[in-house]
Design a protein that fits this description.
- The chain is of the alpha/beta class.
- It has two domains: about 160 residues, 3-Layer(aba) Sandwich (Rossmann fold); about 240 residues, UDP-N-acetylmuramoyl-L-alanine:D-glutamate ligase (3-Layer(aba) Sandwich).
- About 35% of the residues lie in helices and about 25% in strands.
- The chain contains 18 helices and 19 strands.
- Helix 11 links the parallel strand 10 and strand 11.
- Helix 5 runs parallel beside helix 6, helix 16 runs antiparallel to helix 17 and helix 17 packs across helix 18.
- The radius of gyration is 26 Å and the shape is globular.
């Protein structure tokens, strides 16, 4: 053990090399691992108990990029968390582990004992399944996993209540929700969605991010020149919706259009969850819609966008193929989820088929740069659930200034909705049903990496919950939690995973 705290902090390779020497000297190595976002008495007692099993205590800390605890976490960056642990006398060495689990650390250190807290003793309650992988890794080289028995504290509860993680109004809301639901009951309800037959209908979009770095103003024109650095493709639009929904349901069908010219078919098949059954109609002499955004590297600032799309309308042949596919499919669905981006797929005939044959119809009709003022939710004659943002609601009713609640009631009456949800960004969401009235749900993300796709994530989780009969307050909680996680993800790089959602909700309810 070395003196100053910073001298205890080593790389994993350095620890691995030291561990070989310790073993040659006959010393027993103990390994603990965690996030340690807020080091408290529970951690101190846990580490003290762990040290009693051997001679050298190594603590590994999850690096920032692999902490999946929701928006705003970790509160303390990896360097600070490592320094806090290294300052404890009982800890001999600390390393930052740049992996999603402790498995790689266990393989490198080969400890005699891998020590976890009492919360992990019932392995079946670990939603991530990481503890099982870690146990297999420790046993593979003859080590043993042990569990401490001591006082425990919740870092999330301490952070929520004492570090101003959320405004007072949000904490009051969360306390009210926590009195009605437990994370276990919410997880059970979400698992109950799996048997539902879900059909997703909507525009397939390829989102492209072209990352650039500024070079300076052009000498011959009033433009700022950018240097191309790299690019990345994402499955967006209804493809993203399907990927989100497939996290909680294994019976998902997707119906969409692809261009025959540049279909991106191979890429789409690679990016879609294997649970999703796809039904694509090819459009001759057209390309699959591509939205290419030029993004400043580092800041993730969107500079401008170029769209490749054909929204001039469907030929009679293509529309007939699409209508036939819808007629054969949607009447069997427990819920039809429509992600309408206004790029020509949802024609009047398609709308009428959706309205007539869907037992339960959930719609999200989006306003964007390609359809502003033309793609309005009021073009549908009915819907069981509507999820749009406030601007889309005001555009649909041609009303900029009236009280929001008055407009929500108007659209609910006009479409005969059982539930209307208005998403409001940093202000959360507002839901309305005749049975439950208005319910406001706060947002849970204090900052964002990228807001693209956050509304889709909200809708993708909220719609199946509605179809399964969840109460409105729970739908709002789940939808806002999904949206809050989504704004921490670049574009639609990955869906909001069920495990991450449940873990985040669990931490929210620790108030």
């Amino acid at each position: 053990m070395e003196g100053l705290p910073e001298r205890k902090i080593k790389t994993l390779d350095e620890i691995s090399l030291l561990a070989k020497g310790w073993k040659e000297d006959g010393r027993k190595i103990v390994h603990c691992h965690g996030v340690f976002d807020l080091v408290h008495l529970g951690h101190v007692r846990h580490l003290r108990s762990a040290k009693s099993y051997g001679d050298i205590l190594v603590v590994s800390v999850t690096s920032d990029r692999f902490v999946k605890r929701g928006p705003g976490r970790p509160v303390f960056k990896e360097a600070y968390r490592a320094e806090a642990l290294a300052s404890l006398e009982v800890v001999d060495y600390v390393c930052i582990l740049d992996f999603p689990t402790a498995v790689e650390g266990i393989k490198a250190i080969k400890p005699d004992f891998y020590v976890k807290g009492p919360d992990y003793k019932e392995k079946e309650k670990d939603l991530t399944g990481k503890i099982i992988e870690e146990e297999q890794a420790i046993k593979a080289h003859g080590g043993e996993i042990v569990f401490t028995e001591d006082i425990t504290f919740s870092s999330s509860r301490l952070i929520n209540n004492y570090l101003d993680a959320y405004p007072r109004e949000t904490l009051q809301y969360l306390k009210g929700i926590a009195e009605k639901y437990t994370v276990e009951s919410i997880a059970d309800m979400l698992r109950g969605i799996d048997p539902l037959k879900i059909v997703i209908v909507g525009d397939a979009i390829i989102d492209q991010y072209y990352y650039c770095s500024p070079m300076g103003k052009s000498s011959k024109a009033s433009i700022v020149a950018q240097r191309y650095e790299s690019d990345e493709n994402f499955a967006g639009g209804s493809l993203a919706t399907a990927n989100h929904v497939a996290q909680i349901c294994s019976n998902v069908r997707l119906i969409s259009l692809l261009g025959e010219e540049r279909s991106y078919g191979a890429f789409i098949n690679e990016m879609l969850n294997p649970y999703i059954e796809t039904h694509f109609v090819k459009v001759p002499d057209a390309v699959t819609t591509v939205k290419r955004r030029y993004v400043e590297l580092g800041t993730n600032t969107k500079l401008f966008e170029v769209c490749f799309l054909d929204d001039s309308g469907l030929s009679e042949e293509v529309e007939d193929d699409l209508l036939g596919l819808l007629s054969d499919t949607i009447s069997e669905a427990d819920v039809v989820i429509v992600s309408d981006f206004g790029h020509g797929m949802i024609t009047p005939s398609v709308m009428e088929t959706l309205c007539e044959k869907s037992h339960c119809l959930a719609i999200n009709v989006q306003t964007n740069s390609a359809n502003a003022g033309f793609n309005l939710v009021t073009k549908f004659r009915r819907a069981d659930m509507v999820c749009i943002d406030e601007r889309e609601l005001r555009l649909a009713l041609h009303d900029r200034y009236s009280p929001l609640k008055d407009l929500v009631v108007q659209v609910s009456d006009r479409l005969g909705c059982k539930l209307v949800i208005i998403t409001r960004g940093k202000e959360g969401s507002l839901s309305y049903s005749k049975e439950e009235g208005f319910i406001a749900t706060p947002a849970f993300a204090g900052s964002s990496v990228d807001i693209v796709g956050a509304g889709d994530a909200f809708f993708s989780y909220a719609a199946p919950c509605f179809a399964a009969g969840f109460p409105s307050d729970l739908i709002g909680l789940i939808g806002n939690a999904a949206g809050s996680i989504a704004v921490q993800i670049v574009g639609n790089r990955e869906p909001v995973k069920y495990v991450d959602l449940i873990k985040f909700i669990g931490r929210l309810l620790k108030v």
